Amino acid sequence: MTDKKITSEVFVAYSQCPRKAFLLLFSEDQGTPHDYPRILEERRKAHQTEYLEAFKQTHEDAKPYNEKDLRKGEFFVEATLKAECWEADCDVLENSKE
Q1: Rounded CA separation 98/95 (Å)
Q2: 69 Cβ partners below 8 Å, 6+ apart?
Q3: What span, in angstroms and rounded, lies between the C-alpha atoms of 72 and 63?
Q4: Mean pLDDT, residues 12-16
Q5: How far apart are alpha carbons 45 and 34 in whole angstroms?
Q6: Which three-class secondary structure state does DSSP give residue 71?
Q7: Is the pTM of this model over 0.85?
Q8: Packing angle between helix 8-16 and helix 18-26, nearest 10 degrees?
Q9: pLDDT at 1 exceeding the cut of 50
Q10: What does the DSSP assignment read for 18-63?
Q11: pLDDT tens-digit profile of 44-76?
């Protein structure tokens, strides 16, 4: 079994180009990203931080994600969901209570 994780980045890459996804998973040489993707990632992180801060102010009961406490809260922030070789990052999760 491989220790490679199929992340959101790999999933999106596969929809654009299967070879790109393959190279992201199995290539040792990841190369140097251009400035444009780096700038986009920096902006995404800044917007994500701003959004989470505003969300936490309006939802004071939001807790950090913890698998053991899923039934104890309504909102969870900054979660990483994992299942076998799949992995996804979620900024906010809402408990459906059903």
Answers
A1: 8
A2: 63
A3: 9
A4: 91
A5: 17
A6: helix
A7: no
A8: 140
A9: no
A10: HHHHHHHHH-S------HHHHHHHHHHHHHHHHHHHHHHHH-TT-E
A11: 999 999 999 999 999 988 888 877 777 777 888
